[in-house]
Amino acid sequence: MDVYITSSFSNLTCRYYVYTRKSCNTPIVGIVELKSKHIDASGIKEQLTNGSKSALKILGKCPDTYNESEFYPIVLAKGWGRTSRHAMIRNAKIQFGSKKRRTITKKCGDSFLEIISQLK
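and the corresponding structure tokens:
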């Protein structure tokens, strides 16, 4: 998949990336939260939601593409600890415009492109 970053931003909420495929103009939006120690399900959902809103502002500058965009809320962690906490995060749905997507959980070290290619 030929993909390149068209926008990347990091703030206190989380990191987010807007990718565009060279073969078509469909934006691929990845909201990525990195966790190393303390994993709080409600805090992670809030950070991903805030990141989603920020990414929508970026895409708002190109309103024709935002409804067609692919959205991936991702949490990367060194370890997940309790299974119940991991399940709560994995089952959380993040709003992106009119779409809701379930949170994708992976271990640190997985690349964004590897993660989304496994989902297709």
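(Above: one complete record from the training split.) Residues 3-119 form one domain.
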